[in-house]
Amino acid sequence: MFRVRPLVVRPLRVRPLAFALAATVLMSLTAACGSGGDDAPTNVSAKTAALGTLTPGVLKVAVQPYAPYTSVQGDKIVGLDGDILAYVAKKLGLEIRPQVTDFAGMLAGVQSRRVDITVGGVAWSADRQKQGLFTDPPYYSPPAMAVRDGKTYRTVADLKGLNLGTVEGYVWVKSIQAVPKAELHAYPDANGVFDDLGAGRIDVGFLDPLIIIAAQKQRPDLKITTEYLTPPTAAEVKKQPAYAYFQPYQTGFYLPKKATELERAISQEIDAMYTNGEMTKLVKKYGGDPEQFLKPAADVATARRGVDRPADWNPPALGQ
């Protein structure tokens, strides 16, 4: 759950490494060579081969189990990120082969070029792009809050003096600690946040938006709803830098530094999905609000211009 998020315990990612490590490692990352081999599909087109994947015609993808963003069912990656990648891979003539790991393994697999790509809410940062390539954002992750039915909180000012919960290591820990008179409640996982919210022991839970939406459907007894925080202004963030974590962040698919042709091709397909309505369709499929997920904050363009994008780059946006 990327605008730069310099939090040591969970570097620049919405979800903590501790949570990722709790997932069972179903498959290990393996070294691969780029010369093809027996595992290469037959009848690979020249255009597909030119993308430069480790095995021609195959897209080796590192993921961690984190539904409804990424899950592996058989040989398929499902969830929002999985569906986006499947659409792109089909357009490019690539066969997806998932390799399940934890979050640290995802990044390491890309940076050492043992896989072609990793997906699943990976946030863009200036530091991370030095060791890999980011696609254009497939979506933007808005600051979401789980609240009890009948309660409304819109701005940071509304959070003053409240009991605020999140998962240990999430970037919102720093933000919550900066809210005047608010009390931080940190939990090992999202279930603890939901349990205490339902019991009235906390007022608001900060979690990845699709996790909250899924919990609403799976645990109606909790009587919770999803609200989106109005992001703090630039002036508010300048006054209190920790509030930056209450702003939306940009996700990206992450590739090895040498995978320039593949990154360019995937970014083009992602941009096209904004235009043809496919991205809106997939966000809605998982209960997300396209107005929240597909409209970039003002700092998205400025953060990447002159870093890993040209000076005139504009991020993809709903309605463009």
Main sheet? 5 strands, mixed
Class per helix and strand makeup:
alpha/beta
Name given to the CATH architecture of the largest domain: 3-Layer(aba) Sandwich
Oligomer: single chain
Number of helices: 13
- pLDDT averaged over residues: 89
Strand content: 15-25%
- List low-pLDDT spans: 1-12, 16-36
Number of DSSP-assigned strands = 14
Total separate domains: 2
Secondary-structure element string:
HHEEEHEHEHEEEEHEHEHEHEEHHHH
Name the shape in a single word.
Answer: globular
Q: What is the name of the CATH class of the largest domain?
A: Alpha Beta
Q: End-to-end span in angstroms? A: 25 Å
What would you say this structure looks like, in words?
This protein is globular. Helix 3 crosses helix 10. The chain has helices at 17-22, 46-49, 80-92, 103-111, 126-129, 172-178, 190-198, 209-218, 234-239, 260-276, 278-285, 290-293, 299-304, and strands spanning 58-63, 71-73, 76-78, 95-100, 117-118, 133-134, 140-141, 144-148, 163-167, 183-187, 204-206, 224-228, 249-250, 254-255. Helices cover 32% and strands 16% of the residues. Strand 2 (71-73) and strand 3 (76-78) form a beta hairpin. With 320 residues, the chain is α/β, with parallel strands linked by helices. It folds into 2 domains: 17-140 and 249-304, Periplasmic binding protein-like II (D-Maltodextrin-Binding Protein, domain 2, 3-Layer(aba) Sandwich), CATH 3.40.190; 143-246, 3-Layer(aba) Sandwich (D-Maltodextrin-Binding Protein, domain 2), CATH 3.40.190. The two termini are 25 Å apart. The chain is built from 13 helices and 14 strands. Residues 1-12 and 16-36 have low confidence and may be disordered. The protein has a 5-stranded mixed beta sheet, sandwiched between helices. Strands 4-1-5 form a 3-stranded parallel beta sheet. Strands 2-3 form a two-stranded antiparallel ribbon.
